[in-house]
Write a structure and sequence with these properties.
Helix content: 25-40%
Strand content: 15-25%
Distance between the termini: 12 Å
Number of strands: 20
Pfam families: FAD_binding_2
Keywords: FAD, Flavoprotein, Membrane, Oxidoreductase, Transmembrane, Transmembrane helix
Radius of gyration: 22 Å
Cofactor: FAD
Organism: Reticulomyxa filosa
Structural class: alpha+beta
Strand order of the largest sheet: 5-15-6-7-11
Largest sheet: 5 strands, mixed
Protein name: NADH-dependent fumarate reductase
């Protein structure tokens, strides 16, 4: 196994990941207000049932023990929202909230979503872990890395910054300035030691944190869930279909969902709440009749395989749009440069991600001739462009692209730096 790890050679394929400037969040609630703080990249949309009420009404409604806070989705966004909401409600009510005060509705039969698949970790500048390892970083450098994404016109991740000026700057400020605290939060609240820190693509310093053993996403979500499972009402196989609106106030007052816990007799139910948070993920695997992926794909991203689970169909985006939510940057569908190919199923539409950390730890990309052709730590969009150039060079026709795989090569030092998780990927090949 050690010999395998020291010369790891894997095939991979381009993957699509849909991302927006919206991010997974830490939810802060003070005096009835809901403030969204950036955590890691995932779509989150918050719609308050009391959006048009007075400050006093907001606090009364949200704090009402008869009306729960409803969270749609149980990935890291949903869990982070539930954890901080529980803390905030405890402070507001001066007692521990009843279990039914926070309800998480999950359409799958288990929690986690795509967050469980994350391996490379979470980005954070000026974290305690960086300080302890004497890693120099700054918030300004992190901000520059975020804005640098705009340089490549094909990378539309932050087109919002071009359209909305200072508002966009505020979002980037929240994302970067809250990032270190988000990583520290995982340590202090859940005992997670994010001591493996890599410099991944598009970053100027090592700031991508993960635990030294085990997949980052799985460990983080499970740690948060273990703390919440007896405090929060998690309901599985409950697919939210509609946001309920009060006809007079035009505010969200709850949800309609399909309870599929009894497979033989699914039941439509209504749940009223003081606030609704949509943490229901993206649409990178949306091949439904009203596919957002097909609608907004600009560069044939809908033709690429994905690592996203079958649940990533943009449900929350669609529901919010139906009640008048303004959608932005919907074509910000980012392509990830590396994903593993199963030799037995080379055309499978769902792939395992070849995580960024493989390159962050020193892995190099080589073409079919064994030649390195790109700076592996460049922006994802630029790495993808270089890969496509290689595909055209090896194609039979100038109008086509070759399907020959690329490979990622790690020496023993890089393999050891990646850590024991490498064994999982070795077994795949």
């Amino acid at each position: 196994m050690q010999r395998q790890a020291s010369n790891l050679l894997k095939n991979f394929v381009l993957l699509r990941l849909n991302k927006t400037i919206g991010n997974e969040v830490l939810l802060r609630i003070f005096k009835g207000k809901i403030i969204l703080m950036s955590f890691v990249s995932f779509l989150l949309l918050c719609i308050m049932a009391t959006a048009q009420a007075s400050e006093e009404q907001k606090q009364d409604v949200f704090c009402s023990e008869e009306l729960p806070l409803i969270i749609v989705g149980s990935g890291l966004a949903g869990h982070a929202a539930a954890a901080d909401a529980y803390r905030a409600l405890s402070q507001l009510r001066n007692k521990a909230p009843a279990r039914g005060s926070i309800v998480v509705l999950e359409k799958e039969d288990s929690f986690g979503g795509n967050s469980m698949k994350a391996t490379s970790g979470i980005n954070g500048a000026l974290s305690e872990f960086q300080t302890e390892q004497k890693i120099e970083d700054s918030l300004e450098d992190f901000k520059e890395c975020v804005f640098e994404t705009k340089i490549n016109p094909k990378d539309v991740m932050y087109s919002y910054t071009d359209k909305h000026g200072e508002k966009a700057n505020e979002l980037v400020t929240v994302l970067t300035e809250s990032s270190g605290d988000a990583v520290n939060w995982l340590r202090h609240e859940f005992g997670l030691e994010m001591t493996s820190i890599s410099q991944c693509g598009g970053h100027s310093h090592p700031r991508t944190h993960r635990p030294p053993s085990g997949p980052a996403g799985t460990m983080i979500v499970k740690a948060v869930h273990s703390r919440l499972q007896d405090l929060v009402d998690f309901r599985y196989k409950c697919e939210v279909k509609e946001l309920l609106i009060d006809d007079e106030t035009k505010t969200v007052i709850g949800v309609k969902y399909l309870d599929k816990s009894n497979a033989d007799k699914p039941e439509t139910k209504i749940l009223r709440g003081g606030a609704v948070i949509l943490a229901s993920g993206g649409y990178a695997n949306d091949h439904t009749s009203d596919s957002l992926l097909n609608r907004y794909s600009l560069m044939h991203e809908n033709e690429l395989p994905t690592t996203n689970g079958p649940f990533a169909t943009g449900d929350g985006v669609k529901m919010a749009s139906k009640i008048g939510a303004n959608l932005i940057d919907m074509s910000a569908i980012q392509i990830h440069p590396t994903g593993f190919i199963d030799p037995k199923k080379p055309n499978e539409r769902t792939k395992f991600l070849a995580p960024e950390a493989l390159r962050g730890c020193g892995g190099i990309l080589i073409n079919n001739n064994g030649l390195r052709f790109v700076d592996e730590l460049d922006l994802r969009s630029k790495v993808v462009d270089k890969e496509r150039e290689q595909q055209k060079k090896s194609a039979i026709s100038s109008n086509e692209r070759s399907n020959e795989p690329f490979r990622i090569l790690l020496n023993e030092e890089a393999a050891n730096k990646f850590g024991p998780n490498l064994g999982f990927y070795i077994k795949m090949g």
